[in-house]
Input
Amino acid sequence: MSTAKTNHVLPGFKLTLGYTLSYLSILVLVPLAAVFLKTSSLTLEQFWTVVTADRVLASYRLSFGASLLAAAINAVFGLMLAWALVRYSFPGKKLVDALIDLPFALPTAVAGIALTALYAKNGWLGKLLEPLGIEVAFKPLGILVALIFIGLPFVVRTVQPILEDLDTELEEAATSLGAQRWQTFWHVILPILFPALLTGFALAFARAVGEYGSVIFIAGNLPMVSEITPLMIITKLEQYDYTGATAIASVMLAFSFTLLLLINCLQAWTAKRTGRDR
Amino acid sequence: MAGATTLKLGGDHAARFESRAATRETPLVKWTILAISLSFFALFLLMPLIAVFVEALRKGWDTYLAALIDPDALSAVKLTLLAAIVSVPLNLVFGVSAAWAIAKFEFRGKHFLITLIDLPFSVSPVIAGLIYVLVFGAQGWLGPWLAEHDIRIIFAVPGIVMATVFVTFPFIARELIPLMQAQGREEEEAAVVLGANGWQILWHVTLPNIKWGLLYGVILTNARAMGEFGAVSVVSGHIRGETNTLPLHVEILYNEYQFAGAFAVASLLAMLALVTLVIKNWVEYQAARSYRDQQDIPS
Output
């Protein structure tokens, strides 16, 4: 971090950068470093035993699997929703557009108990699904439902602005060259949208992997079956196994940081592909 | 990571696409897409929201009100407000300061700094709580020292506030950085030439220019601060009437099978979410309007 290269007329560089760095270090960087320092008190063998225990491995499979599936479902339906919101007029559109952000605004615990009430055996949706032999609440399927809920706005809100900025000329040109509508979508529109769609998918995935509040109420939390990785950390903490909790946390952190870098690259790609600054 | 939560200035574009044959689908395709996407919306977003209010009133208004005026609920309201009242101004000052340094000056490592500011978004809330336990908990770095001086941070109010500050850390900064970068520094430099000092520039030039983005960031920060569950749950210790925020109170009631009470308290939070969305849309509308006005001014 060097000082200003050019001779600026504006004041406050040292003050603001200094404050930013100190605040960031005290609240975020130093406490996060505690995770890795605490983990390093374990030998490699101990660390490996903790993070690859059967129950922990089962939680990774569930957390990553359900998050990937939820993000994929959101990518498909989020794209359709964004398309409907940008391209079509329909009554209540403003309301739908505003409510897309509900998962950002609604506390996760509230979402969790609401989804559980809906999908429990006597709930509105649970009642309909029970005769079909589909159980959602207190099963891994319930986790998927909760992760779809919290991830949806990420896809819609990353794709929507790109769709709004699309030039109609592109599609007109494609049509005048004899392309069918679906060919135009597949060969002209989708390639432009793709980086944004992938970014939305990655954001939804990243959020889902770490999600706790909305999941634990509906999950059932059975070891080896419906226990997500963040819950494993809580369980270890409740048993005062701080090193165990921290070891698992460091695995999750390493994964999140990688994903964060990937998302930054994706956003740069989106900007390049669409000519937007951000 | 804040890409999905930044202020959007788009209006309604449907007419532009629906008026041209080349950018229109056949009615069958259009209605199929609308039917599928709106059903998905209703199933995953609308129904949970309605369910909160229906479940809250299932046992009637008396039970509903009783759950809200319960002393434990009231103390949870107070703690939730406290967490928000502390974390919003702290992150506001940080956000303005970070955006000023990043948007108005050139320095090496700028992109890396922005990535670091984004970190709390990519960290699981559970880990956000855990890191403070590792630093301030009984077994943590500062644990023995804090115990000696009889200061409680973990399983007490300060821990809850810190965890809340952590999870809401990037919102305002992430809102302001791109906004201030786009506005450049000409207006501020003009103010310097006219003899204004730093605080005068901030107050009379910069803040009026960024007010909508700032307000937007504040609303998002506030909503998350009041609704945070995972991080707060780790550091709270769940002491009723003392270290319970509203979301934690919902959990306790729910786990005690007091469903009507849990949903009554949850409905308060759901109303907060709805108010947040209304203000957010109003801010977006105002921002878009002032943006259009700026574009209309002939130069």
